[in-house]
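Weekly puzzle thread! Below is a chain. First person to post its structure in token form gets bragging rights.
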Amino acid sequence: MNAEVIILTGMSGAGKSTAVLAFEEMKYQCIENPPSDLLLSLFQHIHGQITKNKTVVIVSLFHAQKAIDAVKKVPGLKAKVICLIAKEMDLVSRYKLTRHLHPLQTEGFTLLQAIQRDQSLVESLRTQVDIMFDSTGFSVTQFRQQLMAMFSANQSHLTIGLVSFGFKHGIPLDADFVFDLRLLDNPYHQPSLKTLSGLDKPVIEFVQSQKMFQQLLHQALQYLQVAIPQLIKEERSFYEIAIGCTGGRHRSVVFAQALGEKLKAQYPLGILMIHRDIHKHTDQE
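Winning reply:
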């Protein structure tokens, strides 16, 4: 069996520190920010280890291309490149909340200029990245749960991630498939249901009573009946389905829950359920 290494990079503020803690919890060997001129020697050492520990090498976006080039020079070392991203305004909000400086701000860049420079580096790497992980809108707990579902050392089968979201809060950029529930009648416009969520029985009954709900659920299952065998054949460990409505509190939550229950009954899968926007209150759902 070939040695394996994960190269973890991404935009500053997109969650690398949280990711490192999650990987350490999963018993990965984490090596943070090695000098760029030692990357080749490091990958050769990882390949030569007698005990094949699972290793994550964390590099900045600035050194990511050097890491990718270096690992290609080590025959037999299998590498997976993960890039963490987040939307501009989410990153601004995180920096304002924590009162931390972006590393480039110490070099005279404004925060927005620093984020935009990160974005340009991400674009230059996009075709070489195996997993582009969008942390926009996720809490630390949700982010950790999704990483662990994707990379847990104990995982032996495919995990389907079902992420309910609101289109007005942004589509998860790392989704493999996006399903739109805005065609359904919206519980938000019912005074008795407006303040509830898709986990509450009255909302569930309202959404599931619509004929179109059952038709859309059937269509989603038909798609997955074709996709899942192929994903298993390809030895994919994680596949994310993003399910959206306007605000992410009602229709998408009901649908995600129902789809998850159907999948559990039909396949030996892991199901990761994340309701990204269920606690976000807006003037229009």
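Puzzle host: Confirmed. Bonus trivia for everyone else. The longest helix spans residues 211-233.
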